[in-house]
């Protein structure tokens, strides 16, 4: 069976991705994790006692942030949750 042009193009793109991004995959993952942690901190800023001028907008994102909250506070070095109204552990 002869691969189609789109299949060959997809394989070529996967090869390029492996050549250029492969050696830096861990660095990209770490940068993404730091960006996600900062975003979670911004979303939870008002709940943590930090005045947040965008609290009106970030309040809508809090339910989406709860599933990542436990892993986040453990990464930040907090053994227990810093928020009284969120019981995750």
First-residue to last-residue Cα separation: 54 Å
By DSSP, the count of extended strands is 0
Helix coverage percent: 55-70%
> In angstroms, what is the radius of gyration?
20 Å
- Helix vs. strand class: mainly alpha
Sheet with the most strands, sense and barrel status: none
The parts where pLDDT drops under 50 for at least 5 residues are none
String of helices and strands:
HHHH
What portion of residues belong to β-strands?
under 5%
Mean pLDDT: 87
Question: How many DSSP H or I helices?
Answer: 4
Could you say which overall geometry the principal axes of the C-alpha atoms support? elongated
Describe this protein's structure.
The protein is mainly α and 89 residues long. It is built from 4 helices and no strands. It has helices at 5-21, 25-43, 55-58, 62-75. It is elongated, with a radius of gyration of 20 Å. The termini are far apart.
Task: Please give a handful of descriptors for the protein shown.
single chain; 89 residues; mainly alpha
């Amino acid at each position: 069976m002869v691969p189609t042009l789109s299949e060959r193009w997809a394989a070529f793109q996967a090869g390029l991705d492996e050549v250029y991004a492969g050696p830096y995959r861990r660095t990209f993952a770490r940068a993404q994790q730091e960006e996600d942690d900062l975003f979670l901190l911004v979303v939870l800023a008002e709940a943590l006692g930090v005045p947040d001028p965008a609290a009106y907008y970030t309040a809508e994102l809090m339910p989406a942030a709860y599933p990542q909250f436990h892993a986040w506070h453990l990464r930040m070095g907090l053994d227990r949750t810093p928020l009284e109204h969120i019981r995750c552990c």
